[in-house]
Amino acid sequence: MKYLLSFLLIALFTTASAQNNRKSKLFAAKAVELFEKAAILLRDGEPKKAIPLLQQSLQLDSNFLEANLTLAGAYGEIKDYQRAAAQYENAFKQDKTNTSFYYLPYSINLAGLGKYEAALQALEVFASTPNLSERSKKSLAYRKATYEFAINYAKTHPNQQYFFNPMNLGDSVNTARSEYLPCVTIEDSLIVFTRLVDGMREDFIESRISGNNQYTKWKTIPGSLNEEPKKGAITLSPDGEWMIFAADFSGRGLGSFDLYITYWTNEGWSEPVNLGDKINTEFWETTPSLSPDKRTLYFTSNRPGGVGGSDLYVSYMQPNGKWGAAENMGPILNSAGDEMAPFIHADNQTLYFTSSGHPGYGGADLFISRKQAGGTWSKPENLGYPINTIENDGSLAVAADGKTAYYSSNRSDSRGGLDLYTFELREDIRPYKTLYVKGNVFDAKTKQPVPASVELIDNSINQPLMKIQTDGSGAYFITLPIGKDYTFSVNRKGYLYYTEQYSLSGKAADSTYQKDIALQPVILNSTFVFNNIQFATASYQLLPISLVELDRLLLVMQENPTLKIQISGHTDNVGKADDNLKLSENRAKSVADYLMSKGVAAGRLSWKGFGATQPIADNTTESGRAKNRRTAFTITGL
């Protein structure tokens, strides 16, 4: 009986083993079948459809190493870095000896999570793989450089408690198609962007912005522009009156994509006009960005003679209203790689762009550069993780408030392809806060508008900050960085120059100020009081701030070579009359000496001191005495 029981148990075990073996083979065959179907989908660029098949394959055969590694790769394709890294780790537990090659994609997914130290360690395992090809060695060197950059960046930019949380602009803006290259007006009331509609066709779309991040339902921009299929990359002037974009209009361009301009009318956007051969070439011009004063145009071109592949270029509006010849922005901004999508902020001093050539996290990164004294640009600074990632990071637009940014991305909550998102910029990479100044330039005698150029000088460095042209009715609109004092200067032939200091250092951001400017026509015997001629206390030594205004007078003298003037000095009534008279004459002579040192003939100048004998205000108050302490000139000959 004992032997019979043993025989039955052995037979039962043998039968069960055979059944399990057949079942295992069936499961393994099914797992392979699912794996092969998933592989075809991956080959055809359908990772989201392949993932469920790979998951089913692993449910049938959890030890299917190839399915494990392929599923990890598929997660990586859809940028699900967390699942990808976990899946690789699961595969490495199965096989510790034959998987070192897969530590490269594993490291990339770790970097996607911002775990750069761990990613660098994973690369060391990958480097131990026998017989690496030259291509693999190049990939190793490239990734090692990007991970080390990320680690060093984190060390030099300590955690500032910055929370990066891009918000999808929602169904009012985004669709199943790709939306990209956003641009906002200066009042942050309108966003315009490009949408990939079908194949190569791109349309221009707009949405109105209200408070609390609310956006009206998108619509194509008014006018006939969207009838042309080959266009994209749009920039609006701050006032919303001009639009410049890239297009390949058959028979109308100089080469591939050119830059065109269109103007807002009551019927929508006007017929676009090619910007001409000063800007466009037979090569590719794209991603324009217009400065807030509408006098500087930044864009990208791949024309020969640059620093790298695609470079940043700039063109300046000339006095005749035409764009000047485009200039390469040089090796500080441009690299051996591609620089694209420049965006000049409303402060007119902060430039954002993408680059694949400057050190970064991989692919194309976003960078910031600031305009220096004299018009040069600072060395570009990477915007850092998590704004920049291991992927190609696209164009950036920053609202006038300096902290609200817009960009395109294909994040996990995308409606399809690229969507538009908004996020708050980290404080150290924000542009300067701005305020707005608007006004009119007019003839002081007739009160009629006078088209003219208005130049803004930064008093702290005595350097021009920007120069804008008024419209035909003499109106202008300027954005200025806060925290500074400025000198407004206007030159117009046939008129005396105008300069006046404008103290804005204590003004709040996002405020609007009115500054109307009356120009005095050049008339015999007319007198002009200097606004900004200043001397050291009880001295006739000119202070540096005075040179801004004197240089404007010098320009008037050069434009009117027969003009003669008398310079007069005046004081208040404090002190001895004789001392005041002498001081006022020496101050008037100091102004004349400066003009003569710049080439003005002595015969065109005379000077006289009047002391306190010709007051224009009450000397009993400090404000009145300040007005009496003045330097003026009178036109004595035309």
Question: Which helices and strands appear, and what pairs or packs with what?
Answer:
Layout: H1 2-43, H2 47-60, H3 65-77, H4 81-94, H5 103-112, H6 116-127, H7 134-156, E1 167-168, E2 178-184, E3 190-198, E4 201-210, E5 214-215, E6 219-220, E7 231-236, E8 242-247, E9 258-265, E10 268-269, E11 273-274, E12 285-290, E13 296-301, E14 311-316, E15 327-328, E16 339-344, E17 350-355, E18 365-370, E19 381-382, E20 396-398, E21 404-409, E22 419-424, E23 434-443, E24 453-458, E25 463-469, E26 475-481, E27 485-491, E28 498-503, E29 512-514, E30 517-519, E31 527-529, H8 546-559, E32 564-569, H9 577-597, E33 605-609, H10 622-628, E34 631-637
Parallel strand pairs: 23-29, 23-30, 32-33
Antiparallel strand pairs: 1-22, 2-3, 3-4, 4-5, 4-6, 7-8, 8-9, 9-10, 9-11, 12-13, 13-14, 14-15, 16-17, 17-18, 18-19, 20-21, 21-22, 23-26, 24-25, 24-27, 27-28, 31-34, 32-34
Walk me through what this model shows:
This protein has 638 residues and is α+β, with helices and mostly antiparallel strands. The chain folds into 4 domains: 23-156, Tetratricopeptide repeat domain (Serine Threonine Protein Phosphatase 5, Tetratricopeptide repeat, Alpha Horseshoe), CATH 1.25.40; 169-429, 6 Propeller (Neuraminidase); 433-521, Carboxypeptidase-like, regulatory domain (Immunoglobulin-like), CATH 2.60.40; 523-638, OmpA-like domain (60s Ribosomal Protein L30, Chain: A). 27% of the residues lie in helices and 28% in strands. The protein contains 10 helices and 34 strands. The strands form 8 sheets. Strands 2, 3, 4, 5 and 6 form a 5-stranded antiparallel beta sheet that branches. Strands 7, 8, 9, 10 and 11 form a 5-stranded antiparallel beta sheet that branches. Helix 3 (65-77) packs antiparallel against helix 4 and helix 4 (81-94) runs antiparallel to helix 5 (103-112). Mean pLDDT is 86; it is low at 1-23.
